[in-house]
Amino acid sequence: MTTTLLTIIIVLFVAVAIWQLIKIFDLAQVGASNTQIADDKDNKMNGYLMMGFLAFIYIITILCFWYLGDLPLMSNSASEHGPGIDSLMAISMVVIFIVQTVTQFLLHYFAFKYRGEKGRKALFYADNNTLEAIWTGIPVVVLAGLIIYGLFTWNDIMNVDDQEDPLVVELYAQQFNWKARYGGEDNVLGKANVRLIDLDRANILGVDEGDLNAQDDVIVTELHLPVNRPVLFKMRSQDVLHSAYMPHFRAQMNCVPGMVTQFGFTPTVTTAEMRETEAMKEKVLNINKIRTEKSKDLTLNGEEPLEPYEFDYLLICNKICGKSHYNMQMKIIVETEEEYNAWMAEQTTFAKSLN
Amino acid sequence: MSATVDTHNHDDHDVHHHKETFVTKYIFSQDHKMIAKQYLITGVIVMGIIGILMSLMIRMQIAWPEQQNAVFKALLGKWAPEGVMDADIYLALVTIHGTLMVFFVLTAGLSGTFSNLLIPLQIGARDMASGFLNMVSYWLFFVSCLIMILSFFVEMGPAAAGWTIYPPLSALPMAQPGSGTGMTLWLVSMAIFIASSLLGSLNYIVTVINLRTKGMSMTRMPLTIWAFFITAVIGVISFPVLLSAALLLIMDRSFGTSFFLSDIFIQGEVLHYQGGSPVLYEHLFWFLGHPEVYIVLLPALGITSEIIATNSRKPIFGYRAMILSILAIAFLSTIVWGHHMFVSGMNPFLGSVFTFTTLLIAIPSAVKAFNYITTLWKGNLQMNPAMLFSIGLVSTFITGGLTGIILGDSALDINVHDTYFVVAHFHLVMGISALYGVFAGVYHWFPKMFGRMMNKKLGYLHFWITAVCAYGVFFPMHFIGMAGLPRRYYTNSNFPLFDDTADTQIVITVFALIAGVAQLIFLYNFFSSIFYGKKAPQNPWRSTTLEWTTPVEHIHGNWPGEIPHVYRWPYDYSKPGHDEDFVPQTVPMKEGEEELHH
Question: CB–CB of B355 and A150 under 8 A?
Fold first, then answer.
């Protein structure tokens, strides 16, 4: 209680101190013929500051690309459709940065160049249809291009081709963890509904025990995917909205109670291969450097040091779902067909897992 | 335009009679100028301070997660045991911050202040069409504010399902503590808020259509009025849909219906709900939610149009194109809501449709931005604080708007949906831009509201610190978003994958804290100027519009004598053939003079 009171008092004092500083600043100007309307001196000062601000915008852009440019998931996609999204993203970014650089320049440069001076008269220039047509027309053309490219990419991703015989996997979300269910030998998921959940019999996903297709289903807490085989995810949620977000595969779909949603992709890079890429090695090295630093502080305070980081694909929840939303994840392992089959052979089928 | 109505017959008797008491003048006032001030103080200042304080606490938690923080201990009390913020209250802060800023500050605060102040003054009316409804609208707003704030003091805490309050999370008290009494209060508060907003909007629409002075045709209205008018129309179209969503959600929560709920197993039991769909709620919510962006932004753009023209001493470039783009944005805003739902599980074909309509909206937006820039060209720019904020608005509007091209593209949205990229985008394009609009409006019309001038030097200081910090906060945020970091995470410490974003988070928080402190400069300037500011001249910015023809001292009915007539459009700045660099709307056309803008 006393610390609370003390904090409030300190915060109050700081606020009062700042208030007083402003007041001094304010009072110091009394005397000058002060109409509070900008004069030539103000126009000049702010005109120059506008140019300074333009420089600031450019610098912060460059700094962000320099220091943070390697963070974005712009390369290293691990799914077949990923590069398509990445190149669309790159093209959009180029368009954006050209427009951003030019328009910000014009805006701030004009604010500097045409800063007010006593006695000068502005140009009465109310309209020009040609100009209006130009800057309606150019966005139309550029956006038409982006829209068409975007729609092709989107349709490509969202259309699931049954001819490809995709591996069918159910992603099952609940507060606050993920389960995955495989169709088993027949690659067909048994019917399921949360009304069939029977915790006593360990039927936690509400799979229909009488459905023949359900008997060989396999329920796991770690998602394994064979590389280069199309996967069709069927998403379900038992309680609230969740979102199955797999950033490395450029994949995301909400899990909605009461309905089954779907998303399909083909993983193209195994976990082992991804760990060996140069970019990933560098990223992991960097992260581990940060973690070692943090661990030093932790051990000084007598706490456990952090474990070193090793790269893994992740499925994370990306729709606010309650208290532990920030820690709802499942490891994804992409492996060769043989490794996958070996792993699958070790799993217990649904029929056998029941109590 | 023959729609102009002569109001002279019935307004003269309004002016002189009824003595005012303290209560009728300051509390239950029906005068639009007083109601505007009430909205400014309640909506912008008080709710703004609370909303910004929340955002600073959110930022501190993200930068220094799960650590003891004296500020949390002091402000959050039992929700920050030992000064460590609780995960539930983090979500509550995120939720209420969003709700306050979007609805209370930037909808009611912005429109309530400036529509009320400027609509009668700029179209030449004695007051709003219904002073009584206007007063009711404010007091309903006041009550909704109280209820929203009260929700912080209930046992299980305020609503915490995000400002979009998607069911089932918001519908089931067992899903999170905030979905109990806190959520009920949220829904009640918003229902009252919507009633307030509808009364206000109807009043604005009726006033603009019916009470324009002689000569004030629709195409002679300042762009501020156009923006307020269209904003009110969008509000009347879309807010009732949110009200229906809220009512249906209340039914699901309290009366066992299944509009939005189906097949739910939670905390060991199956609930009875069957057949509803949360996706339906998402559609209803975003049918308001997206137009809401423009309800927030259009008035700010209207204010900017006026201020940029006045301070450039030039007509706004492309007056008609500006009106057309406002209309186009208003129309398109009602058919783009699905871009919030690309990965909601709706039919992918709808995703294609909404991508198309969404990217279309970039066209009128681009036209507006280019027109602002051209208005500056060869102007004689008077760098008043209001002008700085207007230029700042155009800058953040461009920066924030451009990333909309990425988010509006369904294919790209898959990977940046609900990441910090989205947070950066909408804060720049509607949060910061609209806040700049509010600041610009306050600096510009402060002399009209309080009869005194604000201190320009403090205004400059306020602008430059805020402008630098706004980019400092939101520019790097795009990058951690593109790195895949989801929003609304209490802490990222469970994801070593995101460890390399931690330093950036600290930089962002430092910028945010500085920006927060800088707002004290504004508060000081605002309150001290009300009492000690320099007395305002009649027309400080040498503006052409009608509000500067009213006396500095406020009177009921606005003009002591007859309402002035209007003879020209509002942007005759630096018109050739005139000595002054502005020709007020009340000055009749000279012989042979043309209305050049047609």
Answer: yes
ipTM above 0.95, yes or no: no
CA distance B330 to B333: 5
8 A C-beta contact, residue B317 and residue B223: no
Task: For residue A198, list its beta bridge partners.
Answer: A203
Tell me whether residues B176 and A291 touch, CB distance under 8 A. no
Q: What are the sequence ranges of the domains in chain A?
A: 40-116, 162-273+308-353
What is the C-alpha radius of gyration for chain B, rounded to an integer number of angstroms? 24
Token pair of B528 as six digits: 């001290």
Q: Is B319 on the interface with A (CB under 8 A)?
A: yes
The answer to whether A205 and A222 have CB atoms below 8 angstroms apart is no
For chain A, state the CA radius of gyration: 30
**Chain B residues whose beta carbon lies within 8 Å of the beta carbon of residue A195:** 263, 265, 270
Q: Is residue B554 part of a domain?
A: no
Residue B533 is assigned to a structural domain of this protein = yes
* Cα B140 to Cα B351: distance, rounded to the nearest angstrom: 38
Judge whether B312 is closer than 8 Å to chain A, CB to CB.
yes
- Take residue A251 and report the two structure tokens written for it: 């994949």
The two three-digit tokens of residue B518, written as one number: 């800088």
CATH of the domain at B87: 1.20.210.10
Instruction: Report the distance separating Cα A141 and Cα A137, nearest Å.
Output: 6
Q: What letter represents residue A44's amino acid?
A: K
Spell out the per-residue pLDDT of chain A, length 355, in tens: 566 667 677 777 887 888 777 777 777 765 555 678 999 999 999 999 999 999 999 999 999 999 888 777 667 899 999 999 999 999 999 999 999 999 999 999 999 999 999 988 899 988 899 999 998 999 999 999 999 999 999 998 998 777 778 999 999 999 999 999 999 989 999 999 999 999 998 999 999 999 999 999 999 999 999 999 999 999 999 999 999 999 999 999 999 999 999 999 999 999 999 999 998 999 999 999 999 998 998 898 888 888 999 999 999 999 999 999 999 999 999 999 999 999 999 999 999 998 8
Tokens of B366: 């681009």
Give the span between the Cα atoms of B304 and B285, in whole angstroms: 29
| A341 Cα to chain B: minimum distance (Å) | 28
Using CA atoms, how far apart are residues B128 and B134, in angstroms rounded to an integer?
A: 7
CB contact under 8 A, A84 and B476: no
Residue B512 corresponds to which tokens in the numbers above?
Answer: 């945010």
Nearest Cα residue in chain A from B172:
A240
Q: Which position has the token pair 């790195």?
A: B483
Q: Taking the model in full, what pTM does it have?
A: 0.93
* Contact status, residue A321 vs residue A176, Cβ threshold 8 Å: yes
Determine contact, residues B386/B443, Cβ cutoff 8 Å.
yes
Q: Is B571 inside a domain boundary?
A: no
C-alpha span between B325 and B342 (Å, rounded): 26
Element at A251 (helix H, strand E): strand A251-255
The values of phi and psi at residue B444, to 5°, are: -75, -45
Number of folded domains in chain B? 1
List of chain B residues whose C-beta atoms are within 8 Å of the C-beta of residue A154: 348, 351-352, 355, 409-411
Cis preceding linkage at B342, omega within 30 = no
CATH placement of domain A162-273+308-353: 2.60.40.420
Q: Which residues of B touch A256 (CB under 8 A)?
A: 277-279, 344-345
Distance between CA A126 and CA B317 in Å, rounded? Answer: 5
> B524: domain range?
23-262+271-549
Residues contacting residue A306 through CB under 8 Å, at least 6 positions apart: A291, A294, A295, A298, B496
Mutate to test the interface with B, among A198, A235, A326 (most CBs of B within 10 A): A326
* A1: nearest Cα among B64, B154, B93, B70: B70
> How many residues are given for chain B?
598
